[in-house]
Amino acid sequence: MPQPLSSIVKDKPYEVTINPDGLLQKPNLANLVAVAIGWSSNIEYALGLVLVTMLDANVKPAFAMFSAITSAAAQRSALSSAAEAVLSPDDLEIFGAVLAVARTTSEQRNKFAHGLWGTSPQVPDALLLVSPEHILGVHAQQTHFFSLPPDLMMDLDQWPSGEIDPTKIFVYREKDFQNLIRDFEQTATIVARFRDLVDPRLKRYEKCFPEPPRDEILRQLSNQRPFAEALSRIRERQKKRQKAPPQSLQQDDP
Predict the structure, then answer these.
(1) Which of 8, 12, 77, 170 is the most exposed place for a label (fewest CB within 10 A)?
(2) What is the rounded CA–CA span in Å between residue 120 and residue 25?
(3) pTM for this structure?
(4) Rounded CA gap, 15 and 21, in Å?
(5) Residue ranges per domain, the chain?
């Protein structure tokens, strides 16, 4: 897991350069960033195929409709609506776990695609990544400070340093990228196996197999740690909801 710069570098001041040229300085790591984003695109494509498969629809118009939705959250919402309309309760639970795994991948992809990359001589074997929202906040503080009247500026106990909070700067080494790519590959496998599970052809041809193919697909999904953990969380939440006392429909007057 990537760690904050403050956890790795103990010597101050921190020497940080936020500039995309840092990717050119470390091409091996930059290539891994590209591979991770590539896997994320593959997963997004696979989710579109899941929608087509669930609806048993004509591929070209159904996938065009899905691709026209540019927001990842909106795509997941469209998938959820389709799943609720066509899947059995058991498959809908499995779908929830698949979508939870895919959401984690999408969130990491967004960090890579929209974050600001940089480098530091204090961690020469790594790339740094920081959220643009944090840097904008730092600049906003400075802008507000220098817009104050001089007498108010002088009365302040502490002037804004303009420095980026090192707890918000994350250090990505080669191993971190490799682990994330492994997770992305697992997610792609999970989505592909779920598509097999909901494929209408599965029931049509299941007699052609020596054992029910659905059972084998479920075993393969269960062997994927991210899926098993997501499914476990969903079932735990369901148990808690079932144990929760029903709320009264009417409340007593105060």
Answers:
(1) 12
(2) 11
(3) 0.81
(4) 16
(5) 19-123+178-240
